[in-house]
Structure to design on (199 residues):
């Protein structure tokens, strides 16, 4: 029954949500006073809605998991468009901000183009683990904040380090560890820290 609404809930609605989020984030610096802004944009994650210029992808599969990750060309095209939007947004935020902002761009996971099929997820290769666990983790940290970032930092320490530096808190940094689980068993975690590290 809900299948008839899928293209509006996941497709058209999701595309509008992404574009509106970019637009609204660009307006935030115009709001006076201190602010903490969190935006969770599920993109370039599937479904693939944009080509590299931002036009709609015709007949996209409105799936968010499984073999949809193997459609590398669609992923890359959407990634190119989203990267352009992010660069423009960061430039806009920086140009409109009276006080240099702290900006964190962080993914929750990497892509999964080589974890295709059930066997790829259940018994992932080392390369599959690396692809899934290595994330975008970019910062704009003014006033010496760049000293906070170290090669193996993981999201668990991002805000601890930022709060300690800029707001003089004293949060202990936690171990930078990475864990993998499957769609079939999402709470059965395997420690993959060594595999996920950049060499």
């Amino acid at each position: 029954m809900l299948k008839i609404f899928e293209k509006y809930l996941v497709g058209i609605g999701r595309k509008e949500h992404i574009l509106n989020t970019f637009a609204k984030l660009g307006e935030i610096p115009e709001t006076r006073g201190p602010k903490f802004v969190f935006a969770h944009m599920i993109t370039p994650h599937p479904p693939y809605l944009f080509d590299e210029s931002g036009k709609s992808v015709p007949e996209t599969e409105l799936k968010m998991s499984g073999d949809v990750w193997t459609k590398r060309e669609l992923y890359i095209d959407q990634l190119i468009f989203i990267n352009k939007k992010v660069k423009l947004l960061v430039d806009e935020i920086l140009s409109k901000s009276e006080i240099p902002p702290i900006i964190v761009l962080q993914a929750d996971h990497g892509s999964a183009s080589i974890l295709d099929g059930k066997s790829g997820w259940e018994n992932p290769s080392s390369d599959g683990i690396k692809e899934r666990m290595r994330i975008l983790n970019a910062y704009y940290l003014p006033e010496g904040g760049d000293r906070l970032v170290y090669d193996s930092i993981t999201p668990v320490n991002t805000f601890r380090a930022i709060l300690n530096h800029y707001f003089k808190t004293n949060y202990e940094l936690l171990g930078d560890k990475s864990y993998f689980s499957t769609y079939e068993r999402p709470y059965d975690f395997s420690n993959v820290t060594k595999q996920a590290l950049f060499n």
User: Anything to note?
Assistant: Residues 31 and 140 are 20 Å apart (CA to CA). Helices lie at 6-27, 72-96, 117-122, 126-133, 155-167, 193-196. The chain has two domains: 1-101, 105-199.
